[in-house]
Amino acid sequence: MSRHPAPVRWMGWLMLAALGCSSDASKTRAAEAVVRHFFSALPEGDCEVLAPLLVTGGSARPCVETVRELRGHGLTLVGIVESTVDGRDAEAVLVRARVAHGGRERPAPWLLRVERQDGDWRVRF
Fold first, then answer.
1. What's the average model confidence in pLDDT over 94-114?
2. Which of 19, 65, 92, 116 could be 86's S-S partner, Cβ–Cβ 3.0 to 4.6 Å?
3. pTM reported for the whole predicted model
4. Keywords for this entry (predicted)?
């Protein structure tokens, strides 16, 4: 038998759920902000600004290559559809974004993975 009455137990669970939601909400807001920042800085192509916004290591390509390819296709951000914390990794957010290619919006949103790396949120292309 529990020492706490049912309403107290339920309040505890609700508080834990609310904390989890606010944590997820802060992660998704941060991930969306990084995506917006990256695409706003992309036209200048300055890797001094863009490199800290990109995932590094592993299979990630260098900033110069990534930026050259994205700019070569004339990619721009139209808007963000939604974002959710990756169910497999709490330190990653999946961002669905509408992008334009050469001035024409692509019919399907892109799925971008934004990961926390060295304490910062970074986009993986």
1. 96
2. 92
3. 0.81
4. Lipoprotein
Which pLDDT band holds residue 89 (cuts at 50, 70, 90)?
very high
Ranges of H-type helices in 1-125: 6-41, 47-50, 63-72
- The C-alpha atoms of residue 11 and residue 57 are separated, in whole angstroms, by 43
Asked whether residue 1 is assigned to any structural domain, the reply reads no
Domain annotation covers residue 7? no
- Boundaries of domain holding 104: 13-124
Residue 5 located in a structural domain: no
- 3-class DSSP assignment, residue 75: strand
Q: Rounded to whole angstroms, what are the CA distances from 40 to 4, 16, 24, 60, 79?
A: 52, 36, 24, 21, 12
